[in-house]
Design a protein that fits this description.
By secondary structure, the chain is α/β, with parallel strands linked by helices. It contains 3 helices and 8 strands; from the N terminus they run βαβαβββαβββ. The strands form 2 sheets. A 4-stranded mixed beta sheet has the order 1-4-3-2, with helices on one face. A 4-stranded mixed beta sheet has the order 5-8-7-6, covered by helices on one side.
C-alpha cells in the first residue's frame, strides 16, 4: 500500500491562493483535473522525483462552509537540507508565515510549519 494523494480544502474561489502557495511557494506542478471533477473547482498539484515519478500529490478541494485545518496537515519531505531553507525563504517572500519553532523536535529531520493561503497547516521536512 502507498499513499496516492492528500486532500486539503478551501472556500469557493480557492484556486488563485492554492496556485500561489502550492505552485509558486512549494514548487509543485499543477495538473489538470479530470473533466467530471474540474467543474467542482479546486486544483491538483504534484511534486516529481528525479526520475520523473510522482513523489507527492495534493488535491485542493472546495468546501462551503470552510474551516481551515489548523492541526491536521500534510507533511512534505524535501531530500536536500538547503532546499528546505530555500523553500522557506520562497514562502516567506510570497508573504506566507513560516514557523521554525519546532525545527529540531523530530529526530532525523529539520522542519518548519506554514499555512496555505486559507489557513491550512502544512509541515515541510528536510532530511
Amino acid at each position: 500500500m502507498r499513499l496516492h494523494h492528500v486532500q486539503v480544502a478551501g472556500p469557493p474561489g480557492v484556486e488563485p491562493a492554492a496556485r500561489r502557495f502550492y505552485g509558486e511557494g512549494l514548487g509543485m506542478t499543477e495538473v489538470e483535473k479530470p473533466a467530471e471533477l474540474a467543474q467542482r473547482g479546486g486544483a491538483w498539484f504534484r511534486a516529481y522525483d528525479e526520475a520523473g515519478g510522482v513523489a507527492a500529490e495534493i488535491h485542493v478541494g472546495v468546501e462551503d462552509p470552510f474551516t481551515p485545518a489548523r492541526k491536521a496537515h500534510p507533511a512534505l519531505l524535501i531530500d536536500d537540507g538547503p532546499d528546505l531553507e530555500a523553500t522557506a525563504a520562497r514562502l516567506e517572500g510570497l508573504g506566507f508565515e513560516v514557523d521554525w519553532s519546532q525545527r529540531h523536535t523530530f529526530p532525523g529531520y529539520q522542519r518548519f510549519h506554514t499555512f496555505d493561503g486559507h489557513g491550512n497547516r502544512v509541515e515541510v521536512l528536510g532530511a
